[in-house]
């Protein structure tokens, strides 16, 4: 198959997928903001709750206790990373798994950037727990970033194996 045929959809297709992630992420956050007060917990199963928490930091609340500068820092990092990811999507449009991975990261990063810009925090709502231990609450954007990271690792493993 020629490179031209593999590029069908290309950058516009990947950007559309990132936009879908952003829309779904923001939709779930609007539902949470409209239905739950800050700190509310709704048990769903013995190991999963829907919650409304606000994260002013990054993953696992990193820098959440800082004085506010982290909001702009994380917005800046998210925007710079997004520009770099779009450039990578353009350069590597024929590498489907790689592009899927960074598209998930792009959509998730921008979903959380929107929260930081609009609210000053990221809305998290998924709370998994067991035996009194709670995994830090997260959202759909975080899930997309995690899926993207896992796919990046898989892509690299497959690339190394193919090169042998």
Q: Which features characterize this protein?
A:
globular, 164 residues, alpha+beta
Walk me through the structure:
The chain has 5 helices and 4 strands; from the N terminus they run H-H-E-E-H-H-E-E-H. With 164 residues, the protein is of the alpha+beta class. The protein has one domain (10-32, 42-133, 140-163). A 4-stranded antiparallel sheet has the order 1-2-3-4. Helix 2 (10-35) packs parallel to helix 4. The longest helix is centred in the N-terminal third of the chain and has 26 residues, at 10-35. 27% of the residues are buried.
What is the structure about, briefly put?
With 164 residues, the chain is of the alpha+beta class.
Number of strands: 4
Give the C-alpha Rg. 18 Å
How many angstroms does the end-to-end distance come to? 23 Å
Number of separate domains: 1
So what's the overall shape? Answer: globular
Broad structural category: alpha+beta
Percent strand equals 5-15%
The mean pLDDT is: 88
Secondary structure topology:
Elements: H1 3-6, H2 10-35, E1 41-43, E2 48-55, H3 69-91, H4 96-119, E3 122-130, E4 133-134, H5 140-163
Antiparallel strand pairs: 1-2, 2-3, 3-4
């Amino acid at each position: 198959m020629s490179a031209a045929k593999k590029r069908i959809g290309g950058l516009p297709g990947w950007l559309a997928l990132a936009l879908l992630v952003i829309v779904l992420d923001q939709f779930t956050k609007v539902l949470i903001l409209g239905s739950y007060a800050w700190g509310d917990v709704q048990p769903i199963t013995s190991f999963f709750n829907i919650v409304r928490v606000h994260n002013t930091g990054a993953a696992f609340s990193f820098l959440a206790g800082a004085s506010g500068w982290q909001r702009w820092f994380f917005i800046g990092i998210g925007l710079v990373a997004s520009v770099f990811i779009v450039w990578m999507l353009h350069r590597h449009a024929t590498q489907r798994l790689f592009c899927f991975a960074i598209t998930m990261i792009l959509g998730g990063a921008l979903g959380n950037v929107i929260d930081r810009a609009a609210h000053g925090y990221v809305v998290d709502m998924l709370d998994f727990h067991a035996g009194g231990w709670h995994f830090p609450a997260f959202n759909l954007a975080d899930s997309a970033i995690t899926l993207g990271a896992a796919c990046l690792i898989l892509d690299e493993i497959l690339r190394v194996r193919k090169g042998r």
